[in-house]
Amino acid sequence: MALTGIEIFKLLPGGQRPPHPKANCKECGIPTCMAFAMKLAAKQVELAACPYVSEESKTKLAESSAPPIRLITLKGPGSSIKAGNEVCLFRHEKTFYNKPGLFVRVKASQANIAAEVAKADAYKVNYVGMDFTVDGFAVEADTLSGTSDPTKFADAVKAVRSATKRPLILVAKDAKVLEAGAAALPGETPLLYGADSANWEAMGDLAKKLNAPLAVCADNLDTLADLTDKLKGKGLEDFVIDPSSTKLGASIAKYTQIRRLALKNFRALGFPVISFACNAADEGIAAAQAIAKYAGFVVLDKFVPELLYGLLVLRENIYTDPQKPIQVTPGIYEINNPKPESPVLITTNFSITYFAVANEVEGSGLPAWLLVCDAEGMSVLTAWAAGKFDSERIAKAIKGFNVASKVSRKRVVLPGHVAVLSGELEAELPDWEIRVGPREAVDLPGYMKTALNN
Ligand code: SF4
Asked: What are the structural domains, with CATH classification, of the chain?
């Protein structure tokens, strides 16, 4: 049961009688022990931030301070993926931490497994400076085709492993089949799927033997909670849960209930959820819904790049910390091998703004220096309105990055949206020529060819 803020306070230095000498010392970054206790109760700080909690109090607080959704990590020989550790229902309350892993299903009975997996494994697309890829593969036994035979399943797992180093989910209802597949993955941590009301004992024994997380499935939450409790009795702790619904309405209702209950510290459901969007009538919508609310792993039917790209972009947007814009490092960037006479373009360090400008200029083939100013990750207009992108900051960046040493002609181009800064910038940089460029990045190549061509 979760402790209240007051109960937590009594276990902290400030709540002891007599108070600990370090009570309210602020070393945790919070002004008082009481405020720290309230934040700890709301899962907004880590207990480790206070160095003065006694061992006895730590033990009492461990349960209360543990994340409401257990962190589960799957490991392959080349990468790993984490799910869980989430602490809120809506990302604006804090942030969402671990992006749901996108896995591509491989049926053990299908042809050309290695070739198909290699295609998906090689997928890589750059999005505002980040490389998007698939996260792993789910190898599924098929009773009808005979691949529930342990040897055939193991062969399929080996074929998948020969083409990718990403983490795997092994899917079968027979523990012997799963064990044969897992034997082909020494030293790895796959997810074993899945335990249900009929096979949970054998699956639990296998998960314990392999020290691997176990997916637990049931079509109602009571059974799901009952199963995780029974499996905990076997000494297991790492679960992923599947409320087994392929209908959109039922899925979102169950996933939301699970998240709500987990955040209220209902430990039996405090685990990441796996969505088999691949089994839904409309896979794309089911996968998008699961990414938005609240899956930890999403399994897709096959590798379809156009679907995958949309889902990866959606995931990135949802899992970007709303309080921390994606940023690039301020500095002077070279585009198309600029020469000393090339112009100096100016923009902010908001990642999307940077890439919009850089991509347009790069695509034009025209050489330029791109000066990225620290505007706390805001776009040009937002930063200007917030006072984070003004003539003083721009002049400071020009001097700080020693731009003058790179050019023979001291000429800078301001974004058109902040034309109003040109007079002030002239005053800050009297020996520089200040030009006002277009408002939109898409118009930069035309501007550079005409207005800057003199
Ligand atoms: S670190 Fe924070 S919680 Fe710990 S004693 Fe100091 S003020 Fe209190």
From this structure: 5-65 (1.10.15.40), 72-318 (3.20.20.20), 331-450 (3.40.50.11600)
